[in-house]
Design goal:
single chain; alpha/beta
Length: 577
């Protein structure tokens, strides 16, 4: 059994500061630095300071995290109910940073377990979705939703999506040309699996998509603002862009014939091949196919998919180049123009694919929402967006906030780096009156607390924007200090999990500013410290694994080689190691 860790004084001090019940705090906590411990510690100190259990709101992001937090709090409180007085006094003294508890405080500490259990509705340690669901059930009329709404589970969501998709396909096949063209293009670009992935992403991100569509559609299904943003006009087409390069004043079939004749006479195979390929490209009538052929003639594809001009030295070899002195200059000119046109065509094609996805998104979101509304259903995204909209309403929002304001004195936010803008809007609305005059709770001390770490963000999680953690922290700091209250920014740097060797390797990787910019917006250098002193650690640097191109067999009955995928190769390497 491992020896008990000795926690350094700086960590004890930082944890004690973050858990002080009379201040608001923003905590940047490295992985394994004990943020759950600090959260539980703060809740207990709030209760010990006399806070009503029903007025503490602790928001987490998974049911497991909420259960873990509640277990920690109730485990400590239940132990305090029966702990010998001397031991209880010692624990309270350590928890509060050295303050010797009075007899009354010791008595209160023994009663906290029963108080928390008897609180109507229980201690509010819950997911933000559960909290928003309760708010919407409390104010359905103000939120403009059915009072008997039910939550949409995964299977029901799949069923609604399938129904919306069937209706969309039927409409596309019948009389909706724009939707039909969009379907055809998406299937061409991504196949059936790509279409499935697109439909799933549309449903998952429908709220920001709905806002985006509202901004750029403006009644025109062609999305002209999208193309105008990149310098394209309403009359631009793929064929028009590809054909803008041709015909050329220098490179044509006559030049190709002349070079081929000189190459044959001089016995230069490279020059002859160039001439033959150029002549073949000149004969192509389709502008897009001709552009692709010309790119193969003048450019070569390098590692990483970058196209570069071919060397003219081998093409204009001795016996050929003497007859075409202007060739190198003209080659460079045309190759540069060709590369620019190919890039512009690729951009236009990407925008066409984006437009097709948006056409499908516009129709699917509208139909999905109608199907869901007709059945009185809400999903997890709805809980957040509807609550944020409710609290921001000009007419009813103030009344709702006033009613909630009377029931919440302390807000704690866990895993704040994964909080989306809509979720922050809910938190800010709940705390909007905390530091504005006397609010609905008079002179009661009211606080906000958040703990998170940008470096640990799951960027796709519920629309998370990690930078919102820092931005929101600055906003709350200004509000708190503006109300002459105390606000602390606390950093928990020491890891209880890892060792100095591993942590110093991480710090070394992100010591470069450009690497750090991709990880965090925090201006301070990335710094990790280990609790375990002189503990062994080992770091290996393995080379990155690039994808390997594998040709699929023409015969569909033959197996396809998936073993060369980077993930499979990495798994084998780990297993072998």
């Amino acid at each position: 059994m491992s020896a008990r860790l000795t926690v350094p004084p700086d960590t004890i001090k930082a944890q004690a500061t973050a858990s002080r019940p009379e201040i608001s705090a923003w905590v940047s906590a490295n992985a394994g630095s004990g943020k759950t411990h600090v959260l539980a510690q703060r809740v207990i100190r709030l209760l010990l300071g006399g806070a009503d259990p029903s007025r503490i709101l602790c928001l987490t992001y998974t049911r497991a995290a909420a259960a873990n937090m509640a277990n920690r709090v109730f485990s400590n409180l239940s132990r305090w109910a029966t702990l010998p007085e001397t031991d209880l006094a010692r624990e309270i003294e350590a928890l509060t940073g050295g303050d010797r508890p009075s007899r009354d405080r010791i008595v209160l500490a023994r009663q906290l377990f029963a108080k928390a259990l008897e609180t109507p509705g229980g201690l509010k340690i819950q997911t933000i979705h559960a909290f928003c669901e309760a708010v919407l059930h409390q104010f359905p009329l103000e939120a403009n939703i059915a009072g008997h709404f039910e939550m949409l589970d995964g299977r029901m969501e799949e069923a609604l999506l399938a129904e919306a998709r069937r209706e969309m396909i039927a409409v596309a096949a019948a009389d909706n040309q724009a939707l039909s063209n969009a379907f055809a293009l998406v299937l061409e670009l991504g196949g059936e699996s790509g279409l499935e992935a697109l439909l799933g992403t549309i449903v998952a991100r429908r709220d920001p998509l709905r806002l985006f569509l509202r901004e750029i559609v403006d009644g025109d299904p062609g999305f002209p603002p999208l193309f105008e943003e990149f310098g394209f006009s309403a009359t631009d087409t793929r064929a028009g862009i590809a054909g803008a390069l041709w015909p050329d004043g220098y490179f044509d079939s006559h030049l190709a014939a002349a070079i081929e004749a000189r190459a044959d006479a001089a016995g230069k195979a490279t020059a002859a091949k160039f001439a033959i390929d150029l002549r073949a490209a000149c004969a192509i009538t389709d502008a897009i196919d001709r552009l692709a052929a010309l790119r193969g003639v003048f450019l070569t594809k390098k590692t990483g998919g970058i196209w570069e001009p071919k060397s003219t030295r081998n093409i204009m070899a001795k016996g050929v180049g003497d007859h075409f002195p202007e060739f190198p200059r003209e080659f460079g000119r045309f190759a540069s123009s060709l590369d620019a046109v190919c890039d512009r065509l690729a951009l236009f094609s990407m925008l066409e694919g984006t437009r097709a996805a948006l056409v499908i998104a516009d129709w699917l979101i509208a139909r999905y929402e109608r199907l869901k509304s007709a059945r009185g259903l809400l999903d997890f995204n709805d809980l957040i967006s509807r609550t944020a909209a409710l609290l921001s309403r000009q007419d009813a929002g103030a009344w709702v906030q006033y009613k909630l304001d009377k029931g919440i004195d302390h807000i704690l936010v866990d895993e704040a780096q994964d909080t989306s803008p809509d979720q922050w809007a809910v938190v800010k609305a709940l705390a909007s009156e905390f530091f504005a005059g006397m609010a609905a709770r008079g002179q009661t001390t009211r606080t906000v607390f958040a703990v998170g770490d940008e470096k640990q963000s799951i960027y796709s999680f519920q629309g998370a924007e990690p930078e919102s953690f820092t931005v929101s922290g600055h906003e709350f700091r200004d509000k708190v200090t503006g109300a002459a209250k105390q606000f602390e920014h606390v950093r928990l740097k020491r890891s209880f999990r890892s060792t100095e060797d591993v942590l110093s390797a991480v710090d070394l990787v992100f010591s470069r500013e450009d690497y750090r910019d991709g990880l965090t917006r925090d201006p301070e250098p990335v710094s990790h410290l280990a609790i375990r002193e002189n503990a062994p650690g080992h770091v290996e640097v393995w080379p990155s694994l690039d994808p390997i191109a594998v040709e699929e067999p023409d015969d569909w009955t033959e197996a396809i080689d998936h073993a060369s995928a980077p993930a499979v190769r990495l798994a084998k390497q780990i297993a072998t190691t």
